[in-house]
Amino acid sequence: MAEFNDIIWRRRSIRKFLSEPVDREKVEKILNAALLAPSGKRMYPCEFIIVDNVETLKALSEAKTHGAKFLADAPLAIVVAVDTKKYDVWVEDASVASTYIMLAAEDNGLGCCWVQMHLRGTEDGVSSSQNMKAILNLPDRFELLSVLGIGYKDEDKEAYNINDLQFNKIHHNQIGNTIVGLNNK
Q: Are 48 and 31 in contact (CB under 8 A)?
């Protein structure tokens, strides 16, 4: 296992994967991380759907117009679905869980890319959520935040470095006040 700081500097969105299936042990570690993600009021509204069926992955890749095509070639995807009857701030809980999945994938030597499904759709006006509910047989009370394509990396991306950081986004006490000397790890 890598150190957390190493993981966050190294993690990049990966959209090209080797065709080999992901080891079950690694999938279990990723799912454990997803289940460990914090949830407001300990409501835990998220459900995680593991997809490794080629036809289903292809269908997911077509659930929205832009940004999902690579899922057709991913060996694995994890769909983050939420029972909206359980909690009103489900977007936040599902976002945290999706982030934990991405970091756990990196920690296990895998590539991962988040595909935003919430508030997205196809050119014919059908929402990604509607498309995915049909593909995954989800009841109407569920909504979908993301699909995370996961696999062994078939592309190399350099880790981030200090020059990639936008220190102008950090303010002290109020917007516009910078912190002098804040530009190192």
A: yes
> How much is the pLDDT for 156?
94
pLDDT tens digits, one per residue of 123-172? 999 999 999 999 999 999 999 999 999 999 999 999 999 999 999 899 99
Which residue is listed with tokens 């990723």?
A: 30
- Tokens encoding 183: 């530009």
Q: What is the 3-state secondary structure (H, E, C) of the chain?
A: CCCHHHHHHHCCECCCECCCCCCHHHHHHHHHHHHHCCCHHHCCCEEEEEECCHHHHHHHHCCCCCCCHHHHHCCEEEEEEEECCCCCCHHHHHHHHHHHHHHHHHHCCCEEEEEECCCCECCCCCEHHHHHHHHHCCCCCEEEEEEEEEECECCCCCCCCHHHCCHHHCCECECCCCCCCCCCC
Per-residue pLDDT tens over the stretch 89-122: 999 999 999 999 999 999 999 999 999 999 999 8
pLDDT at 86 over 90: no
Q: Where are the domains of the chain?
A: 4-169
Per CATH, the number for 4-169 is 3.40.109.10
